[in-house]
Structures are given as structure tokens and as C-alpha cells.
Amino acid sequence: MSPTTLAPNAKTVLSEQQDAAKLLAVVTQLVHESRPARAAASALDSSLERDLAIDSLSRVELLLRIEKAFGVRLADDTLTRAETVRDLLHELIKASAVAAPTLAEPIVAAPRSDAAEGAPIEVQTLTAMLLWHVARHPDRAHVLYYRDAEQTETLTYRQLYEAAKISAARLRGPEFGVGPGEAVAIMLPTCLEFFTSFYGALFAAAVPVPLYPPARPSQLEDHLRRQAGILGSCQARILITVPEVRPLARLVQPLAPCLRQIVTTQELAGGASSAVIARSRASDTALLQYTSGSTGNPKGVVLSHANLLANIRAWSERVRIRPEDVCVSWLPLYHDMGLIGTWLGSLYNACQLVLMSPTAFLARPERWLWAIHRHRGTITAAPNFAFELLLRRQDEGAFAHLDLRSWRMCANGAEPVSPDTVARFIEQFGPHGFRAQAMTPVYGLAECAVGLTVPMPGTAPRIDRIAREPFLSQGLALPAGTDAQEPLRFVACGTPLTGHEVRVVDAGGCALPERRVGRIEFRGASATSGYFRNPEETAGLFHNGWLDSGDLGYLADGELYPTGRAKDMIIRGGHNLYPYELEEVIGTLPGIRKGCVAIFGSRDPRAATERLIVVAETRSTDGAERIALERRINELAVELLGTPADVVALVPPQSVLKTSSGKIRRAATREAYEAGRLGRAPPPTWLQVARLAARGASDRMRGYAGSTGRAVYVAYAATLFALLAIALAATLIFVPRGPAAWATCRGFVRLALASARVRVKSQGFDRIPGAGPVVFACNHASYIDGVILLATLPRPVVFVAKQELRSTPLVRFVLDRLATRYVERFAVQESVEDAKRLAVAAKAGESLLFFAEGTFRSETGLLPFHLGAFLTAAQSGVPLVPLALRGTRAVLRGDDWRPRWGKISITAGPPLVPGGDSWGAAVALRDAARRFIAANCGEQEHDDLR
Questions:
Q1: Fewest C-beta atoms under 10 Å: which of 307, 466, 492, 915?
Q2: Is 854 within 8 Å of 780 (Cβ atoms)?
Q3: In the chain, what is the straight-line distance between the N-terminal and C-terminal CA atoms, in Å?
Q4: What's the number of CA atoms in the CB half-sphere (13 Å) around residue 447?
């Protein structure tokens, strides 16, 4: 960060020195309060994280104290940009040049005057959902976005529609060439351009993949490596981001070879809005939602239009959302609760979405509540930590005159719901009009779009008091007596949404009765079909038609009580140990950083059980103090879990790993502990960038080497084919049409393939009748399909081709010598006369070969089969043999004339005898042939035409 330029005079220098000393005093006081035993010695170049252990929540408190001490208003992004105390000083000097705003009661927004016609209950896709609203109330305000504390921007349905059309035209155009079903990665902060980019991808029949942008420079390397794993998993060819992130995103390209282009929203905004909106179907993939965690095996949840709309409709029905509702949110748009629960839910119901950035909320959490006050917000959603953050706000004037009476539903989810937080929030904000019935603990997961269980409206939160010993030893959630010592407490998260089911099962998959703890399984209309390009994880997700949530819990009176993640449970000596309560209690110890404790099991092969490991962050370096902390942590472990910890690891700040949303990454922390990496300070930002650049350079060099080899092969193959094509054309002049020309072409093609080292494996050719006419039906994936068939088929055939192929003289000459039969634009299924003509030829003894799809595309996937081949077989009574080509698309793609090495195979199916000469008999032939080809060509049905 560049220092602010000051006028070089003594008064200014003295003022800066005074401000520096005063700022250091504020910082030191905050550090001292979190560790009373000894104050930290701060310096201007002390790192807020590495040296002073000031995390995100502590930064919020520090920001407030600085503003109060100096009477200024710091920029919201100070929280994320400042790395050292000196950075804070620079921000302070800049803010001092601007008059501090006076605090006043926010003005309440006037009620909306524009009417809406309800929700589009009949639409089947997100695309149709937006078009429905545009047709009925195009100028109704959809999003009101706070760019800063006072300035807002509005996005109407018409504006979203027009901007998305422009983005779609650019994405599908020749410059970017995004094809149907391809992933479009969106790495944007909260902004209106996120919405237009998201719908631009949908309008282009592509699949949006939200990614979160870098937060702080100190986390740059880990962040970009994780995003590279996601980009590689979804095979995104294009990444949409902002200009500030673009140079950093380029470091990811060598780590994700599939990524071809990085573009900004400004580049997508230029152009005409004349794009034709691609048609989508309910079963098409509408979103890839990547879950938190490590990227060694990224899990992209596949969600179709039907999945998302089913969840939104069920959620809206349960909560009784109306167009008059106002949703107020700061949730990041890359998070499922922010993306689906707040934005798409608001869009569906024609509610206004009042939106602020996560940075603005973290800088001043009270802004969220004041936005509810000002706009008469009725519906919100947030993780539990957001409510805890508001409870820590100690400024007495922050909530003066705050009115929360309009707030009717506040979803608390996305992480474990704390019963203490729920009770304290209701108590503290009750005097401001917040009703207990508004606090709504919910349970959901990305694999079910977002929501799964929600309490009925108008019910106050239910907190279950459970006897500790039966729960830990037997998995029984028995109600605790009034005199029970230290009972466990869990929060009810409601009943399943309409169209969804929930059950709790034991280790064998058998359903358990109420108040028995087990794994939570679910099924319903919102359930994902699996993880994108991840068959292993997908196989582990499904159990006899139910999906495994990965969470533990129990049912009581029909409501679900989640108790924790299954992977977080520790099995030690036959007992099930849960880390959450102990983590929370250890975090309250003086000298331990709250929210920075991770407890996990580490396999002990000698004892055939797990060791209990406690990792807790502390700034203490005093030996006696650390020994006392270890002793107290073990005392708490015995009190709460009935066993001491095997290892208590006191580590420096920033050692416990977390997700982007602040959740503890226990598995990743365990891996770092077992690898001996725990507690190592992150390298400076410049070194992280240098390492990424070095790795990228290495990957590029390997890529260049591979590219050079491919270039040599392409040049060789092109020269070879050109020479042989000329020689073939000259030879065919003297060869009769028909079988003789076929044999000649066959010889030249086999020579060309052998010289280019292309190997073709044939299977099932013994099934092809040796005599008599046959109709062949083959899939079509590449321009070389006909060449491969010429080289491998055991008998001459007559190709049935579209008239357009005659426009190229050399191709026309060769096809004519092969006695090819042509049809107009290959629309045989629409021309009974063409089918009759071909049937006569088949009856006369010609063996005909059809490419059943009629054409092909560069992307994988079977297109619909035309009926020409099957009508010909049915009307002539000739057997039909299906042929499955595999691998030709990879050797020569439709959008790239550069051949590649690859394996090609062709498999012949058993002859299919027509069941008559009717249309129905032809359809039956088509379906049977398609089943065989789909099973042997290595490609599934094309997503947008299935």
C-alpha cells in the first residue's frame, strides 16, 4: 500500500508522529485486553495477523476504536486492505481529510408503490422466471445495492434482462466462443455486475460457477491454489472478474490449463443486445455450487433448474413470502445462502432485495440492522456468527432509536446454531421490536440447493436440553431433568420442506427412531444428481435412493436437531466425542483466541483408535503460562468429554485453518498437524506471488514443450494428408464409380492413418451380415468419421450425405466417385419421399450408411437421432446395424483443424430386424440403435437437447 503524500512541513510531520503514537496506543490496548498477562509491544510495521494476531472479528473492534479515538470514518475496505499498523495510519491520514459524518437516525424508506403479480408458479427454468417478470413489471426495482454507506444503485428486471442479453451475446460470440453446457466461472465481489454476468451465462446456455475473490494478500497463495482446483474441476474456459483481480487471476491460468480467457464485466458489457436467448429445459444444469474445504478433490454440486426452483418454491411456501416483502442481505453471492436463498428467492417472489457487501457488514455490523430499519425489511438470512458479531457491538449509540418491528423472519443457518446466541440476541434486541418468533434456525446444504428443514412461521426457537452421558456413550438424545448438571443443548431446525424427506440412520443404513443420534439422510425435488466430474464422491453420496448429508443429528416431534458433522466426530475407546462444545469453552479461556480452536481425531495405529488432539491459538510465549493453559484445557476435556486430550498443541495465531465463511477446517488443520506444518507463519505476499509465478512458468514451459511436439505433428499430418488427397483425386479419375472407387479410397486412407500413427480398433464386425443389403446407423462426432469408416468397414457402403457437402469441389468429386446419395439438409425425418427413395435403393441391394445425428458439434454429447435411416430400414425390410464410433472427437474437434494423437474404436452392434414398415417400427429401431450407440460411444446425451 502506497503511503499518503503529505505537505513537507514541521506541523504535518509532528501531527503524523502524534497520530502514530496514538494509533499504536489503541492497537496495543486491544492486544493487551485479549491477553492481560502481558501487553504486546506494537510497532508501525507489525503485521496485524502474523505479529499481533488481530483476526477478522478483532479488526471490526479495532476499526470502531480507531474511529472513536480520532473522530473519523475509515473506508469500509480498510478491514481487508490493511496488513500492518502503518497501513492503518495511512488510511487514518486519508480519512482525516474528510469531515466525519454526523450520526443521525436513518430515514425510513417510503413503501413501494409499484405492484407485482405474484410469483411465476408455472415456469420451469431460471431463464423463464426472469422473462416472466420482465413481461409483467419490467421497471419494478429488483435490487437496491449500497455501493457505500449512502450511495445506492437500483437494478430493475428490464435492466437485468437487457444487460444479461449483451453479456450472453459476447460470451457466445466468436471472441469468447462459450458453448452450451460449458462452465463460466464468475469471480466477482458483491456488485450489480454479478447478477448480469450470472444471467448472461444462463442466456448463453452455459453454466455459471461462482467463485469467491481474494480476501487479503496474506491468504493469496492458498486462495488461488484452491480456486485453480475448482477451475480445473469444472473445466471453465472463461473467468469473469474485476480489473483489480485480473492480474492475480492470470497466475491461476498455468494451474488450470482449461482456462483460456480472463475477462472483466466491462468487456462483456460492450455490444448489442440482439442475442437470441438459448432455450433451456428443467433438467439442464443451471449452477455448479462448489462446497467449502480443500481442493484435492473439489466437489461441485450439480443443480438443475428444476432443483433450484423446487427449493425456492418450497421455501417460499413455508415462509409465506409475498411481493411486498423486503429482503435485506449482506451475504456473499458466491455462497448458496446468499445466491439462492436471498437473491434467486427474491427474484422469484418479486421481492425487493436490499443488498450491501460483506465488507460493509464486517466493518460496521449495525448497518445491517439499520438497513432493516430504513427499508422496513421483513426477511433476512445469515450464519450464526453474524448475530454473535452484533451482540459484541458495545457502542451504546449504535442502536439508539433502532426499530426492528418489521422483521418477521430471520433465517439462522449455514453453520451450527448456538443456543446461547439465539437466546441473547432475542433478549438484547427485544426492546428494539425484534420478536422471538422471527428468529428461525434452519438446516440446509448445497446438495439440496440450500434449504431442507425450516420451522413453521410464528414459532419461537426450540432448544432441547439433553442428558450428557447417554448422548456421548449411547447416542441417545434423552431430555435432561431440571436438576441435570451441564446438559447438552441443541436447537431445533424445523421439519422438511414440502416435497422433501429426512431420516436419521445408523451405520448400517437402517432408519432410527426419534431421539436416536445418527447420520442425516434426505431426498426430494431439490436433491442434486451428484458432483460434477467426480464419480467417486457421487457414489458415496447416494445410499439406496437417499443422499447422505454428512451430518449427524436426531429427530424429536418431527423436527430435526443437527448435532454436528460426521467427519468431525472422534471415536476414542469406543466413545463418540464431539468437538464443538469443548472448542467453544476453550475459546473463552484467558490467553486463548476465541473462535481459533480446532479439535479432531488423529489415527493411532498402535491402539487401533483415534487420539484426541486439541489445537488452540495463543500469543503466549511464557513457559509457565503455556503449561497452565495446557493443564486447564485438559481439565475442561475431562469435564465435558470424560477424557483428557492426548495432545494439546498451543500454536501461534493464524495456524487454525478456516473456510472463506470463517468455519473451522478441521480436516485441513489435522493434515497440517500430521505433516508438521501447523503453526508456520504464512510467507510474505511477494513470496506467495513469486512462488505462484514460478510454478506457472514451469507449467508453461512444459506446455510449450508439448505444444512444440503437437505443432510438429500437425505440420507433418497436414502435409501428409494434402499430398495423399491430391494423389487420391488423380487416381480416382481413372477408377470406376462405386465399389472400385471405394477400394481405392480405402487403400489411400489406410496408408494415411498408418503414416500418421492413428490406430483404430474394431469390434463386433463379425455381426455384420456377409451378404445382402444392410442399413448402417452411426453416431457423428468429427470430420474424420467417414474416413475411419472407409478404412475399417469390411464391405463397401453408400454414404447418405447432406447436399451442403457438394459445395467443396474436392469433397464433391470424392463423394461422387463413391456413389454417395444426397438428401436436402439431411432432413430425412421431415421428408417421407426421401425415405421412400432410399428404401427402394436398399431393396435393390445397396448397403446405406447414415450418420443418425445428421451433424455434430465440438462439445461432447449425443444429439437427437433423425429417423431417415430407420424409416429406410423399416420400409425396405433390410436389417439395421448400429455403429458406435469412439474417440474421433478428441482426435479432430469440430472447431479445431489441428489433429491430435488419440485412440479410436468402432463397435458394431447386432443386426436389428424391423418389426414392420410403419412409423412406429422405425421409432423402435431408432430407440434400440440409440441405446447401443450411447452405451458404446463414450458420450452421454447432449445437455441442451436431451
A1: 915
A2: yes
A3: 53
A4: 20
Residue with the three cell numbers 440482439: 274
* Calpha distance 370→360 (Å, rounded): 12
Q: Which three cell numbers stand for residue 942?
A: 447432449
Please tell me the distance from the alpha carbon of residue 515 to that of residue 495, in angstroms, as a whole number.
15
Q: Higher-confidence residue: 176 or 437?
A: 437
| CA-based max dimension of the chain | 106
* Distances 126 to 122, 308, 337, 463 between C-alpha atoms, Å: 11, 8, 17, 37
The amino acid at 339: L
b/e 845-880 (16+ beta carbons within 10 angstroms → b):
ebbbbbbbbbebbebbbbbebbbbbbbbbbbbebbb
- As given in the structure block, the three cell numbers for residue 173 are 460470440
d(CA 237, CA 250): 13
Judge contact between 446 and 289, C-beta under 8 A.
yes
pLDDT, tens digit, 9 for 90 and up, residues 652-674: 887 887 765 566 777 778 777 77
**Interacting residues of 795 by C-beta distance below 8 A, sequence separation 6+:** 768, 770, 847
What whole-number distance in Å separates Cα of residue 56 and Cα of residue 215? 11
Task: Please name the residues in contact with 222: beta carbons below 8 A apart, sequence gap of 6 or more.
Answer: 682
pLDDT value for 226:
74
Strand partners, 905: 761, 886
Q: Measure the CA–CA gap between 224 and 248, rounded to whole angstroms.
A: 8
Radius of gyration from C-alpha coordinates of the chain: 33
Give residue-wise pLDDT tens across range 767-799: 898 888 999 999 988 888 888 898 888 888 989
Domains of the chain are 10-96 (1.10.1200.10), 126-364 (3.40.50.12780), 463-565 (2.30.38.10), 570-674 (3.30.300.30), 711-945 (no CATH)
Give 850 or 292, the one with higher predicted confidence: 850
Phi-psi region of 509 (alpha: psi -120 to 50; beta: other; left: phi over 0): left
Q: Which of 169, 159, 166, 158 is nearest to 192 (CA)?
A: 159
- Determine the Cα–Cα distance for residues 650 and 867; give it in Å rounded to an integer: 71
Set of cell numbers at residue 720: 501428409
Q: What is the pLDDT of residue 708?
A: 62
pLDDT of residue 472: 81
891 touches 900 (CB < 8 A) = yes
Q: What is the mean pLDDT of residues 366-380?
A: 94
User: Do 154 and 160 form a contact (C-beta atoms < 8 A)?
Assistant: no
Give the residue from 616, 571, 577, 333 showing the smallest Cα distance to 469. 577
Please give the Cα distance from 562 to 491 (Å, whole number): 8
Give the predicted TM-score (pTM) of the model. Answer: 0.64
Q: Which pLDDT value is given to residue 946?
A: 35
Distance from C-alpha of 823 to C-alpha of 268, rounded to nearest angstrom: 41
Q: Of 216-230, 399-413, 791-805, which range is least confident? A: 216-230
Beta strand pairing call for 775-778 and 848-851: parallel
Task: Compute the average pLDDT of residues 360-372.
Answer: 89
- Which cell is 545 given? 435412493
DSSP element (H, E) containing 201: helix 192-203
Kindly state the cell numbers that stand for 478: 434423552
Is 90 exceeded by the pLDDT of residue 713?
no
Q: Is 701 exposed, middle or buried (0-12, 13-18, 19+ CB in 10 A)?
A: exposed
